Amino acid sequence: MLVQVLRGHKDEVFVLEAHPFDTNVLLSAGHDGQIFIWDILAGTPVASFQNLIEGQGHGAVFDAKWSPDGSMLAATDSHGHILLFGFGAPNDRLRQVSPNAAGTGSSSSASCW
Question: The whole model's pTM is what?
Answer without folding.
Answer: 0.74
